[in-house]
């Protein structure tokens, strides 16, 4: 191989990235081309420095760089992309998650992180491939919709138990492992409301509101308050009982007394007063009588 021989991989390089880096190095050595020659043959126009960084093993190179190198080497492009996907998935997962079992996962966040780890350890299969492997339920519905799984793995929505189980089975876990992970799921999501199945209508909304009150109930309360208020004013001397002046339709204080009128005028007023019925001598009384009439009609209806 022309050029400087590659150095040892850094101690921090993960297993997936190491596999990708060794694959790239092996093909570079097999073709015997230098970095400058690789840049000259780059179909995407990548520089020599950009291409050589892919062989260092310090970080996951861009996917386009890996594809370009595979084309230059006349190697299997799909194999290169699969190695790159595994390395990328490995880089997206916290190092402490590798090798953790169901008993060590205690939160919804670490459960989703464990799902990403299991997928990476299974070779980072495509979501559509997992959907196909999970199959359909008895009603013919997809058990593991790839779009929903994408939202779960990105922590956009929580997984349902059915989707989580389908995911585990699509990855090829044993029945024992699936049951242990199901127990972990139930422990984490204990008490959480169940998610609706696809196509199932939402439950009716029950609002915590007070019982409906008929309008005339408010009217009764208002009438009772008015009567109570009048009683308090009467006791405290704020309301004056009607006297002869009021009953005869005369004014109060500034009006002449009955003795100022002759008998014929007084008799005529008394006759008019009797014919007209009880005299309404306050706005409150008028309102109370109208309110009683309205409530009476409402209750009869």
Shape: elongated
What distance separates the N and C termini? 103 Å
Largest sheet: none
Mean pLDDT: 79
Work out the helix count: 14
* Overall tally of structural domains: 3
Uncertain runs are none
Oligomer classification:
single chain
Rg to the nearest angstrom? Answer: 45 Å
Secondary-structure-derived class: mainly alpha
**How much strand content do the residues show?**
under 5%
Approximately how much helix is present in the residues? 55-70%
Q: What is the strand tally?
A: 0
Order of secondary-structure elements: HHHHHHHHHHHHHH
Description:
This protein has 3 domains: 15-92, 434 Repressor (Amino-terminal Domain) (Orthogonal Bundle), CATH 1.10.260; 96-188, no CATH class; 215-300, no CATH class. The chain has helices at residues 15-31, 35-40, 48-53, 63-73, 77-92, 108-121, 127-134, 146-153, 161-170, 175-188, 215-235, 244-247, 263-276, 283-300. It is built from 14 helices and no strands. It has 301 residues and is an all-alpha fold. The protein starts with 14 loop residues before the first helix and ends with a helix. Helix 4 runs antiparallel to helix 5 (77-92), helix 9 packs antiparallel against helix 10 and helix 11 (215-235) packs antiparallel against helix 14. 55% of the residues lie in helices and 0% in strands. The mean pLDDT is 79. The protein is elongated and about 140 Å long. It holds the Pfam family HTH_31. Residues 270-289 are annotated as: Disordered. One of its GO terms (molecular function) is DNA binding.
């Amino acid at each position: 191989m022309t050029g400087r021989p590659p150095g040892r991989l850094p101690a921090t390089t993960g297993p997936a990235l190491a596999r990708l880096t060794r694959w790239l190095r092996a093909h570079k050595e097999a073709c015997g081309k230098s970095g400058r020659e690789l840049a000259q043959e780059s179909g995407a126009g990548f520089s020599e420095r950009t291409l050589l960084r892919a062989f260092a093993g310090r970080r996951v190179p861009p996917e386009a760089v890996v594809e370009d190198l595979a084309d230059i080497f006349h190697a299997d492009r799909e194999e290169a992309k699969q190695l790159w996907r595994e390395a990328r998935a490995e880089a997206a997962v916290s190092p402490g998650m590798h090798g953790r079992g169901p008993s060590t996962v205690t939160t919804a966040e670490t459960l989703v992180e464990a799902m990403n780890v299991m997928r990476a350890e299974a070779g980072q299969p495509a979501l559509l491939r997992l959907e196909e492997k999970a199959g359909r339920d008895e009603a013919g519905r997809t058990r593991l919709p790839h779009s929903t799984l994408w939202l779960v793995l990105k922590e956009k929505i929580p997984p349902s138990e059915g989707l989580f189980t389908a995911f585990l089975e699509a990855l090829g876990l044993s029945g024992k492992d699936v049951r242990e992970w199901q127990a972990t799921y139930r422990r984490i999501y204990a008490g959480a409301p169940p998610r609706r199945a696809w196509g199932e209508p939402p439950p009716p909304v029950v609002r915590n509101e007070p019982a409906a009150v008929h309008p005339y109930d408010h009217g009764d309360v208002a009438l009772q308050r008015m009567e109570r208020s009048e009683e308090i004013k009467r006791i405290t001397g704020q309301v004056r009982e009607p006297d002869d002046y009021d009953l005869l339709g005369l004014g109060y204080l500034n009006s002449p007394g009955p003795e100022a009128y002759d008998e014929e005028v007084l008799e005529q007023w008394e006759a008019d007063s009797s014919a007209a019925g009880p005299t309404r001598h306050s706005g409150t009384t008028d309102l109370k009588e109208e309110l009683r009439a309205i409530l009476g009609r409402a209750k009869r209806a």
